[in-house]
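Dear all,

This email documents one entry for the complex benchmark we are building for the journal club exercise. For each entry we list the sequence lines for every component of the assembly. Then comes the predicted three-dimensional structure of the complex as a token string, followed by one or two observations. Please use this as the template for your own entries, and keep the labels exactly as they appear.
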Amino acid sequence: MAETIGAATVTLEQAEAFLRDFAKMSEFGATPNGGVDRQAASEADIAQRRWFAGLLESHGFRVEYDRIGNQFGLLELMPGAPYVVVGSHMDSQPTAGRYDGAYGVLAGAHAAFRLAEEWRAEAVIPRYNLAVVNWFNEEGSRFVPSMMGSSVYTGVLPVGQALATTDRAGVSVAEALAPTGFLGDGDGPPAAFCAEIHIEQGRLLENAGTTIGLVSASWAASKYVVTVEGAQAHSGATIMDDRQDALYGAALLVVFARELADRFPGALHTAVGQLDVYPNSPVVVASEVKLLLDLRCADEAVLAEANALLHERFAEIERVANVGISQTLSHEWGINPYQPEGVALARAAAERLGYAHGEILTVAGHDSINMKEMVPTVMLFVPSVEGVSHNEGEYTRDDDLVAGLDVLTDVVRRLAHG
Ligand code: HGY
Ligand code: MN
Ligand code: MN
Ligand code: MN
């Protein structure tokens, strides 16, 4: 093992089993620079889901899929009782890190395996059952919006709309999932509670020397799909006054998005991560550009002001570049907090086990943001080295991974006993 494992109650054997499974998971969709590419319903995602089903079944968990392909490993010790749903997502961004989401799914599974063994040995029957979950398409990179599987499970997104969503090649979610056997017909197991552990994807825990983040609320998000409409023209012969250059309009918007963040330093994060140019040809003025504009904010008043300024700029750019701009909000969520009793339960677990811990907000989106609107939900973080994420260089130290597993197991144990 690379580093010492300073885990309070996770045995060395359990830690090694976890790290061995994590190394195996990281082989699916592995990229040459140490990252992964396993976008929703891709070959790599399908292969890892099949491997994970085998792992769950080898530990006596029954594997089920709901109508949007969420994958569940069920342990039903109390027939008819609802479930503690613990897990995260295994799908990734195109060139991403090994830890984002995948760590939380595997830690959820190993926490459940540890509890199943413990309850079997002590002939204990918990009040609630356990459901390990791998949510479908949390990243929203192939199919927009993100957090798709948990949005359908919590009723935020109609399943028909989700299944009809197409990727940039025109393949729908339904078509991508149909041959895999992952499309169930049910709504998934009824939840009583939810727990998710995830890498922080920021620098706060590392800078503070804190091992466990107790997530108390999330930043708000507004994600726009923006279409800039111009007119195709010869990039040489057409005189400048006759042009309706969609790429020029889009470029003005990309620059504005960054300037907007600079107007609210530290409080607003913005980016345009995806941009499709049509016809994207060397000697042609672009007639259409589609881009995804992402705003994140810790203060809803600031976000409202930023959105208002953005809409003003849309109108200005239409005039300046002589183009048309239309936009839809593909996804948004507010700053709603996690239940304080869940934060308190997580704090007590970290204290009992002796790990440095502290409250933190999440800036990134997670499936637990959906789940906390349905049931009491606990969200935990472990540190990201240098805050690097959505990048093949993403890294979290082994002993932090195992410390997170330790605290997650304690949290799920207490939730399951009610
Ligand atoms: O949007 C998000 O923050 C998530 O990573 N999909
Ligand atoms: Mn994630
Ligand atoms: Mn992510
Ligand atoms: Mn996320």
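Observations: The domain at 220-333 is CATH 3.30.70.360 (Alpha-Beta Plaits). Residues 63 and 73 are 5 Å apart (CA to CA).
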